[in-house]
């Protein structure tokens, strides 16, 4: 049984104090959240090299829930929203442990924190599209659902030179047929789902997040996690330690499927 150490608890309490001063946490995909007004995103520096865009994986379904089951790799995927200090803490922890993540960013979050797009890519992580406003995209009329996808893609393109490597629908584990079609039209051959849900957005405590991930993870798993929650920051070191003990590497989704 893994556990959250006192050191981890002290770290998350320090981070929580920053959040109290800066505003409430963003909600996860399982709860409602009113997006803050967007601001103009800074364009990609001319010296930056655009990352690779989406690619098709022949033989893979339109909606991908996991990678190959015969290789000891997993993808830790994060819904990108919430306090930027928590995002940086998660990225730092992953990089210190040699892990690489997949971040599906919300467009309004990129508007508010445009530097994080380049920070994610510079750390060797995947960066993708999690809609513009993080609302229930599957429930929207076609024109509005299209805008949710293309507006976020435009932010990513402006900030990085690419529309991102993956698309994941907001407020749902899988895309409706309409949203999957709109994503393909926007340039995303696959929708990225997952087979392990950490339930971290329910704020169950770091130990519960750790148990939930480790109870379901196996070769090829794609795990759903979130930026914006101290429990997730506190859980990540123990999750990575136990994955290593089991011989599992945390890689980007692109590497998982390559």
In round numbers, the mean pLDDT is 86
* Shape verdict: globular
Structural class: alpha/beta
Alpha plus pi helix count:
9
**H/E order of the elements?**
HEEHEHHEHHEEHEHEH
Distance between the termini: 32 Å
The unreliable regions are 1-27, 31-48
Helix amount, in percent? 40-55%
Strand content: 5-15%
| Structure summary, number of beta strands | 8
Radius of gyration: 17 Å
**Main pleated sheet:** 6 strands, parallel
Textual characterization of the structure:
Pfam families: Polysacc_deac_1. This is Polysaccharide deacetylase. Residues 30-69 are annotated as: Disordered. The protein is of the alpha/beta class and 258 residues long. The chain has 9 helices and 8 strands. It has helices spanning 6-22, 84-96, 107-112, 115-122, 142-160, 177-186, 206-216, 230-245, 253-257, and strands at 63-64, 73-80, 102-105, 126-129, 191-192, 196-197, 222-226, 249-250. The longest helix is centred in the middle third of the chain and has 19 residues, at 142-160. The protein starts with 5 loop residues before the first helix and ends with a helix.
List its traits.
9 helices, single chain, disordered N terminus, 258 residues, six-stranded parallel β-sheet, two-stranded parallel sheet, Polysacc_deacetylase_ArnD, TAT_signal, alpha/beta
Write the layout of secondary structure elements.
Layout: H1 6-22, E1 63-64, E2 73-80, H2 84-96, E3 102-105, H3 107-112, H4 115-122, E4 126-129, H5 142-160, H6 177-186, E5 191-192, E6 196-197, H7 206-216, E7 222-226, H8 230-245, E8 249-250, H9 253-257
Parallel strand pairs: 1-5, 2-3, 2-7, 2-8, 3-4, 6-7
Helix pairs in contact: 1-8, 2-8, 5-6, 7-8
């Amino acid at each position: 049984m893994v556990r959250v150490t006192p050191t981890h608890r002290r770290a998350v309490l320090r981070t929580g104090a920053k959040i109290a001063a800066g505003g409430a946490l963003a909600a996860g995909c399982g709860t409602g959240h009113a997006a803050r007004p967007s601001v103009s995103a800074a364009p990609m520096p001319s010296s930056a090299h655009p990352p690779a865009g989406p690619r098709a994986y022949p033989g893979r379904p339109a909606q991908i829930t996991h990678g190959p089951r015969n290789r000891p790799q997993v993808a830790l995927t994060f819904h990108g929203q919430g306090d930027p200090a928590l995002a940086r803490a998660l990225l730092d922890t992953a990089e210190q442990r040699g892990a690489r993540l997949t971040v599906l960013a919300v467009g309004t979050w990129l508007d508010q924190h445009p530097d994080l797009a380049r920070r994610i890519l510079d750390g060797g992580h995947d960066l993708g599209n999690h809609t513009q406003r993080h609302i229930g995209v599957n429930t929207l009329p076609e024109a509005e659902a299209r805008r949710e996808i293309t507006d976020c893609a435009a932010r990513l393109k402006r900030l990085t030179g690419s529309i991102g490597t993956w698309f994941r629908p907001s407020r749902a584990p899988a895309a409706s047929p309409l949203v999957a079609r709109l994503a393909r039209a926007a340039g995303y051959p696959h929708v990225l789902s997952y087979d392990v849900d950490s339930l971290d957005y329910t704020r169950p405590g770091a130990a519960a997040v750790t148990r939930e991930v480790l109870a379901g993870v196996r070769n090829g798993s794609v795990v759903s996690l979130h930026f914006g929650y101290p429990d997730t920051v506190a859980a990540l070191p123990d999750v990575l330690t136990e994955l290593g003990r089991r011989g599992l590497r945390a890689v980007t989704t692109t590497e998982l499927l390559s």
